[in-house]
Each structure stands twice: as structure tokens, then as C-alpha cells.
Design goal:
The structure is a single chain. The chain has helices at residues 48-55, 83-89, 101-104, 111-121, 126-139, 145-149, 158-170, 188-205, 216-222, 240-245, and strands spanning 4-17, 20-33, 37-41, 64-73, 76-77, 94-97, 176-180, 208-213, 225-230, 233-239. By secondary structure, the chain is of the alpha/beta class. The strands form two sheets. The chain has a six-stranded mixed β-sheet with strand order 6-7-8-3-9-10, with helices on both faces. It starts with a strand and ends in a 5-residue tail after the last helix.
Length: 250
Amino acid sequence: MEDKILELKNVVYSFHTYGGEVKAVRDVSFEVRRGEILGIVGESGCGKSVTAQCILRLNPEPPGFFGGGEILFDGKDVLKMTKKELRQLRGGDIGFVFQDPMTSLNPTMRVGNQIEEVFLGRGVDKKVVKERALEIMSQVGINDAEKRYRQYPHELSGGMKQRVMIAIALVSKPSLIICDEPTTSLDVTIEAQILDLLLELREKMGTSIIIITHDLGVIARLCDRVGVMYGGKVVERALVDVILYDVADP
């Protein structure tokens, strides 16, 4: 039990719509162990991203609402946390890398200012914040960090923007990072670099990672275990080799 950093127990999440209640997440259960990379795979619309955002309560409430279950992070139920505790959890204990870095980054702010903003939000002294920002940019493999620091998001490639998003997620040295389709819009060469970077973060920092994807190639390369979602449910959970070579649901 001490090995688990995150545990979802029978989580149900629904949306009120004009056509009635829609259950997006149906009785979902899984756990993430310390230092583990867990993959959540499934077709578009199966509930992967909604499940990931449930962990940090990022889905809009209303129209969304929890219909039951528990989300335990280090033994504390996220669904019972106060607003102050949730602020600490989001970007503090848990980092989140969103699917599309172009829409996640502010197009009117320089890259360095966006990373600095997160540091200042964590109470870092203004005198050292630029130095810390450049340090974390270098850590995630951003070459010529001083130059990139002064640039706007539209001046960066897709892979470089994704590295900036990972840098922002790492500011507070979280023990868990959730990556929602982090390589969807990237070509295969840049995708490989981002996956290598995530593996390196796990090796150097011991960070637990959840990867949300529909790409079984990403799962095979990166993950220790995998959960397969279909219709809002987790229909299979196993080690990666078992899922890929001994499929229960063809």
C-alpha cells in the first residue's frame, strides 16, 4: 500500500446535457506506484482525458459532477480537498502536460515570463527566478535557453513548445506528472525525443508518470503497466507485455 502514490477507486463522472445525464467515466479504478510509468490507452472519446482531469478536478463543475468513488493521492481523497489544498495539488504535487501546447501557452507572453510566473506562484524570490527558469529549461533539453527565454510561443517548434510545457509542469518538482497525449501533434523524430525526455525524468527524479494516449507504440516504448479504456470503463489492466502480446479483447 505504501508503494501507491495515486489510487482511483470506482470513480464515476458525468455531465448534465440537454439530452440528459451522460456518464463519461464509469466505475474506473487503477493505481500508480512510485517511480512507475502508467499508460492509459483507448480510442477517441473513450474517457481517457476526462479521467485524467478528474484526478486534479479540472473538468468543469457544473455541468460535470462526480457520481461516486474516491481519488486518493498520498492517502488523501482529492474529492474532499479544500480549494487551498487543490491549489497546492495542481502544479505542486502533481504536474499536468496538456495535449496541445499552442493553446495551453499564452501567445502574448514570452516563454521565460510564463515559466517565471509559475515560480513566483510557488513563492520563489524574484531575484533568482530567471536563473531557476533557465535552469529548468536546460533540464528539459531546450537548447540556447537564454534565446528561447525571450521568444514567444509562435517562434518555437511544436517539440520545443512541448518541452516548455514539461518545464512548467516540473517547476515544483512534482511526484506525479500527467501527460495528456503529449506527442499527438509531433512528427516521429520529435516524438522520440519527448519520450526519451520523460524516461530520463523518471530515471533522474524518480517521478511517477501517467501517459494518456491512443498510440500503442508510445505505450510499448514508455510504460511499465497499461490500462485500456473503452466506453468510459477500464476494460483491461496489466503489464505492457501482457496487453500487447496476450490481448483479451481483440
